[in-house]
Amino acid sequence: MKINTSILFLIGMFLFNASAVNSQSPILNKESQNDIDSTLEKTTSMVRSLSLNGWKLYDEIEIFKPVNLYDKIDGRAEYYLSYDLDWAVFCSFRSSTENRFPIELSIFNMLTPINAFGAFSGERMIGASQLNFGRDSYCSGTNYFIWKGQYYIQITASDTIDELNNACLELAEKLTTNLYDSGQPVWGLEVLPANNLISQSVQYFLIDALGHIFLKDTFTAKYYKDNIEIPVFLSHQNSSESGKTILSKFKDFATRYGKGVESISIDGVELLVCSMDKYYDIIFQKGFYVVGVTELKDKNLAIKEAIDFWKQFHVE
Q1: Rg of the Cα trace of the chain?
Q2: CA–CA separation, 178 vs 61, rounded Å?
Q3: In angstroms, rounded to a whole number, what is the distance separating the alpha carbons of residues 275 and 128?
Q4: Residue 293 β-bridge partners
Q5: N or C: which end of the chain has fewer CB within 10 A?
Q6: Listed residue (103, 141, 142, 138) closest to 123, CA to CA
Q7: 3-state SS string for the chain
Q8: How far apart are CA 308 and CA 163, in angstroms?
Q9: To the nearest 10°, the Cα dihedral for 104, 109, 113, 114?
């Protein structure tokens, strides 16, 4: 019987798209294309209408999509694209009395709050001065970084004078007042145990977490206990079976690149102990999550902290 290849192609594309949708974390509800276009129009219109004390928009607002973002920030575009960026707008503000000191504004639409947090957290530095804009914000030198909903905002001043600082703070306040936030929760921030957590250490990776191509939808964080930093990761899986697959990939990686792997059971908790030359990674599965305590030099300490984290980590 002759098979119509066009039909086979359409069936294949349907199955591929269905698989891609099912692979998403359950909280990732992306906008439709009409909503995206409307969001971009509203955002640029809002920026054009901003009224700042003694400052005005200079020249045109630049709009970039994934296909041409490299033209604007070559060498850094891949970072934002790894978090599913849909569009970015760039513009500058100039003082009505002094044009030498511009303020540069960048707004990245990452489609979901979790992706925006990922882009924001990946560039954040521990110890930076906290601000009170959006869901989280900080400043470093003359740079201001803000996460609000699906948006990651950067404001960069060209000098440290008070006039510029005050204008940047005013711009940040007006942007975060006008940009919409759906209030959609970010699962890692909800489930990571709070005790001893270094809050500014929390990061989210949509893909390639810890340098592993197989590790997606993953949070990393650091805890500080007894004068020791304890790095952890937390990866969401869609099923118990996919969690077992990730454990198997860790086992293969440690076998190939480390000094050995062993499976142990302590108090009913199954742990994968990976000896990685000069440190140990302890991996376990709990519910639909794969969790790890990583990069600890002392094996017994690593196992102890993994058990302690297992007890603190509560999932439904």
Answers
A1: 23
A2: 17
A3: 34
A4: 232, 282
A5: N
A6: 138
A7: CCCCHHHHHHHHHHHHHHHHHHCCCCCCCCCCHHHHHHHHHHHHHHHHHCCECCEEEEEEEEEECCCCHHHHHCCCHHHHHCCCCCEEEEEEEEECCCCCCCEEEEEEECCCHHHHHHHHHHCCCCCCEECCCCCEEEEECCEEEEEECCEEEEEEECCCCHHHHHHHHHHHHHHHHHCCCCCCCCHHHHHCCCCCECHHHCEEECCCHHHCCCCCCEEEEEEEECCEEEEEEEEECCCHHHHHHHHHHHHHHHHHHCCEEEEEEECCEEEEEEEECCEEEEEEEECCEEEEEEEECCHHHHHHHHHHHHHHCCCC
A8: 50
A9: -100
pLDDT higher than threshold 70 for residue 7: no
Amino acid at position 21, single letter: V
Tokens of 144: 């201001």
The model carries a pTM of 0.86
Beta bridge mates, 274: 261, 281
Q: In which residue are the tokens 């993994």 written?
A: 306
Give me the domains of the chain, ranges plus CATH numbers. Answer: 33-178 (3.40.1000), 187-312 (3.40.1000.20)
Q: Tokens 């077992």 label which residue?
A: 244
pLDDT of 59 over the 80 cut: yes
Q: Is the dihedral of CA 15, 20, 26, 30 positive or negative?
A: negative
Q: Please tell me the distance from the alpha carbon of residue 261 to that of residue 274, in angstroms, as a whole number.
A: 5
C-beta of residue 93 within 8 angstroms of C-beta of residue 55? yes
CA angle 238, 243, 245 (to 5 degrees): 115
* pLDDT tens digit sequence for 120-165: 999 998 889 999 999 999 999 999 999 999 999 999 998 888 888 9
